[in-house]
Design goal:
mainly alpha, 113 residues
Length: 113
């Protein structure tokens, strides 16, 4: 696995932890709704149903976004890996140029102090 693929994989893990946290919040909301379920009244039932519908839609969206984000990260990592394999010298030159630019900026900043 290339460095880029590992970086995107770490980003996917961060997205997964966000999704896990959102799912935990949704589960807590569902639990709250269950405890409110003991309360009576038509208005309470209507609110409860509306919130449950919204929670279900949110779950579906989170799952969809998670799948899309993982697919996009994987595609980007594969494209980067393919480019580096197809153009190794160009990739080295770009990396060296970027390193030189950072070194120049760093030296200018250090001289200024």
């Amino acid at each position: 696995m290339s460095i880029q693929a590992k970086t995107f994989d770490n980003g996917a893990r961060n997205s997964e932890s966000t999704v896990v946290e959102l799912n935990r919040v949704v589960a807590q909301a569902e639990e709250l709704l269950k405890t409110l379920g003991e309360e009576g009244g038509a208005a309470a039932e209507a609110v409860r149903q509306r919130v449950m519908r919204t929670v279900s839609q949110a779950k579906a969206r989170v799952a969809d976004y998670s799948t899309r984000a993982r697919a996009a990260a994987t595609d980007a990592a594969q494209a980067t890996d393919r480019y580096v394999r197809d153009n190794p010298w160009r990739s080295i030159a770009v990396g060296a140029a970027a390193g030189a630019a950072v070194a120049v900026v760093a030296s200018l900043l250090l001289r200024r102090d």
